[in-house]
Design brief:
The chain contains 13 helices and 20 strands. It has about 425 residues and is of the alpha+beta class. The chain has two domains: about 240 residues, 3-Layer(bba) Sandwich (FAD/NAD(P)-binding domain), CATH 3.50.50; about 160 residues, Helicase, Ruva Protein, domain 3, CATH 1.10.8. A hairpin with a 3-residue loop joins strand 4 and strand 5. The two termini are about 20 Å apart.
């Protein structure tokens, strides 16, 4: 069987390898001059290939269409990904948040391992090959055509072009155009896993400050739509960091978002001391105040916070910075405790999709067979990875989606690997 894979990213390479293993004649077309461009920069260049955990962990970290992913994940799960790369010589390790990385902390090692497999199974890789048309005849795929008018006849076409994020890597949304041309519905494309913008001056004042083990709540008016414990960072444009990026995927799913942003109804609430309830925090502050009873308030918080955030805490608490600690009243202390547990940042939007880690939205999964990734509209066309309207929070889940859908599409049948 002749198979053409469009796109040389994580899902495209994996699908090409699997299809070649099945005994097919496979051609991989990549529009840029190299393979795995986005894979090389994922995880800040360290490549968070998957996660350590159960199928329940996977499902609860999918933002949308989790049930669609059940079959292909069950057939090729996170443990299979780890075993696969270990077999290729890529040793792995588990870090905080159950994230799985190469021991080398080098995403290029992952790309090289996949490239080696492509050569081993004689996949014909053609770089600088930009596909602009998929020919359909009698409701089946006939051939794939590139912009320079080269035609590749095929029995099976796997579309793995990626989304619209990180355009410099080649993910420019071409796949959505191809899929739409053959009749597929495209769910609204939005940035996923992207920093949040804010005009609050505390963000600029605190830019560069990274906070670990804080709890973040994303509020739609007064309703909590996302909550997580982890790491975040202030920036000149607003907020970023792992838990903020995950919060953005929930933000983009809200109805009437632009109207809510305009009315300042979207806020992030930061709990700076999530390990302490309000009473325990008050007792902790009382101990510190007793320790520094004769000092001024501005010099009493060094045991609680990083130096950079103290002036902001003082300002927002509305307690005179020069007031002696033993003179601070109970109401002032209660106000301080509330502030520490509820530091509020108003959100004005997200950063552009070009810097988003993944794309939210994509090909409507109702039109895709969840076991094989074959189009229900056109025989022989398979759609995988970020092109699908499936995305997840940070932590290796999105690459797992890429690998699981790729294996499903690469098979000649749906037998267990």
């Amino acid at each position: 069987m002749k198979v053409v894979v469009i796109g040389g990213g994580a899902s495209g390479m994996m699908a090409a390898i699997k299809s070649a293993k099945e005994g097919n004649n496979v051609i991989l077309l990549e529009k840029t001059g190299s393979l795995g461009n986005k894979l090389k920069i994922t995880g800040k260049g360290r490549c968070n290939i998957t996660f350590e955990g159960s199928i329940d962990d996977f499902m609860k970290n999918l933002v949308k269409n989790d049930k669609f992913m059940y079959s292909c994940f069950s057939n090729f799960d996170n443990n299979d990904v780890i075993k696969y790369f270990n077999h290729l010589g890529v040793k792995t390790k588990v870090e905080r948040g159950k994230r799985v990385f190469p021991v080398s902390d080098d995403a290029n090692e992952v790309v090289r391992a996949l490239e080696k497999e492509l050569k081993k199974y004689k996949v014909d890789v053609k770089l600088n090959s930009n596909v602009n048309n998929i020919s359909i005849k009698n409701n089946s795929v006939e051939y794939v055509e590139t912009v320079d008018n080269k035609i590749y006849k095929c029995d099976k076409c796997i579309i793995a072009t990626g989304g619209s994020s990180y355009k410099s890597t080649g993910s420019t949304g071409d796949g959505y155009i191809l899929c739409k041309k053959i009749g597929h519905n495209i769910i609204d494309i939005k940035p996923g896993l992207v920093p949040l913008k804010s005009n609050d001056r505390i963000c600029k004042k605190l830019q560069g400050l990274s906070l670990k083990n804080v709890r973040v709540k994303l509020l739609d008016d007064k309703k909590v739509v996302y909550e997580e414990l982890g790491e975040m960072m202030f920036s000149h444009f607003g907020l970023t960091g792992p838990i903020i990026l995950s919060a953005s995927s929930k933000l983009n799913r809200l109805d009437n978002l632009e109207n809510k942003l305009a009315k300042k109804n979207i806020n992030v609430i930061i709990d700076l001391k999530p390990g302490l309830d309000i009473d325990s925090l008050d007792k902790r502050i009382c101990r510190d105040f007793e320790k520094y009873s004769n000092k001024e308030f501005k010099n009493s918080l060094n045991d609680l916070f990083p130096k950079k955030i103290i002036p902001i805490i003082i300002e927002l608490s509305k307690i005179d910075e020069n007031k002696k600690v033993h003179q601070i009243e109970k109401k002032e202390r209660e106000r301080l405790c509330y502030l520490i547990k509820n530091l509020k940042v108003n959100i004005t939007g997200t950063m552009p999709i070009d810097i988003a880690i993944v794309t939210s939205g994509g090909v409507d999964v109702k039109e895709i067979n969840p076991k094989t990734m074959e189009s229900k509209l056109v025989k022989g066309v398979y759609i995988i990875g970020e092109l699908l309207d499936v995305d997840a929070y940070t932590g290796g889940y999105n690459l797992q989606i890429a690998f699981s859908t790729a294996i499903a599409a690469g098979k000649n049948n749906y037998s267990k690997v």
